[in-house]
Amino acid sequence: MWSIVQWGALIPEEINFGTMYRLNTYPFIHTGFFHALFNALAVAPLLERFEAEHGTLTAVALFVGPLSTVPAGLYILIERVMLHRNTSVIGASVWVFLLLGSEAIKTYKSHPNFSLGPYKIPTWTSPLFACIVVSILISNVSFLGHLCAILVGYLLGLGYLKVFVPPEKVLRWIEGKLNLLGRLPHYVSVDQKTYGRYGVLPTANQASEQTPLSYLGTSQRLGA
Length: 224
Description:
Blueprint: H1 4-8, H2 22-25, H3 33-54, H4 56-64, H5 66-82, H6 93-110, E1 113-116, E2 119-122, H7 126-137, H8 143-158, H9 168-178, H10 180-183, E3 195-196, E4 199-200, H11 204-210, H12 214-217
Antiparallel strand pairs: 1-2, 3-4
Helix pairs in contact: 3-4, 3-6, 4-5, 5-8, 6-7, 6-8, 7-8
Pfam family, one: Rhomboid
GO biological process, one term: proteolysis
Subcellular location: Membrane
């Protein structure tokens, strides 16, 4: 009997030229309703913030593409090549921990440490603690999969993955051709986003004064 989990899960030994799609399908597949629900609740606010900062098209392109593929590739490298194991992975929690890693790097740049009693702990370690706690409290989660996602999130936060960001000229052409801003509610266009390919846009403050708040903080479309 055909199973969508078996078809689209990230199974290291099943990866070949004919099944490369698994590198991008596994975040969309879940074991059941509650698995999907909890992942959606966790990832929605993080994706919403990312979408407001980078635009809707960029968010879709990155998460359907490299921000699924790169963690998967790293996981396969460690799981299959180094550890010689074949544990399958599914679920959008990869995006949750990836975004937590990226946000932790941003936080570290402005607030390098947080205090825990007499100890100063680097803020970039917070996703690692979350990964450990989730692995202890919830059964059948992939500690290695989450760890790979965090490492890729660190790279994203440090700016090493900006090469994957689509050119704004192409994004504007797509937006104009499809009239996405007029057709989709809460759509964040190229000109409404906070960040460009190389950092904070110089017109970000001005844009925030002119852009309705509904475009910047209410879309949960990407996490549904």
